[in-house]
Amino acid sequence: DEFTLGKFTLPCKKILAVELEPEIASSLKPPLLLEPRGENFSLTAGGSSLGLVSTTALITVMRRYARPLDTAFDTKSESMQLAPGTTLFAWYYRAPVDLEDKLYLVLVEAESPPIAVLSRQVANALRFLCNANNS
Fold first, then answer.
1. Tens-of-pLDDT digits for all 135 residues of the chain?
2. Global pTM?
3. Virtual CA dihedral for 33, 2, 88, 90, nearest 10 degrees?
4. Cα separation of 41 and 96, whole Å?
5. Is residue 73 within a helix (H) or strand (E), and if so which, with residue range?
6. Smallest Cα–Cα separation from 82: which of 19, 46, 35, 118?
7. Where are the beta strands (DSSP E) in the chain?
């Protein structure tokens, strides 16, 4: 599979799902899993569905919380295409102040610089949206 960034075409690995909270897998709260379901994404925790999130909602959450990258990211990271010209990457990165790698989600849209956010922030926002839709 390939990913196009500006005038460059780069190889990338496709993913079918993103575990949004891998660092809390050993805690009591089950981690969230984001999986494509047609035009939407299914959000599950511990095998239980929390609901569906639209592609537009996911992109909106990313735009709201993500910030431009100040370092290069590995475009060979796992990715999923959200819409034509819009790709979401799962990228593990260790900042100089961190003891271990953390999972960041990187949104790359055509003609825009890549933006990144900790996956836990996205998980919390999507969990809130699903809870609001279910109440």
1. 444 444 444 444 444 456 665 554 445 566 678 888 888 888 887 778 888 888 888 999 999 999 998 777 777 778 888 888 999 998 888 878 878 888 888 999 988 899 999 888 888 888 888 877 766
2. 0.76
3. 60
4. 33
5. none
6. 35
7. 2-5, 8-11, 13-14, 18-19, 32-37, 40-45, 48-54, 67-68, 78-83, 86-93, 102-109, 115-118
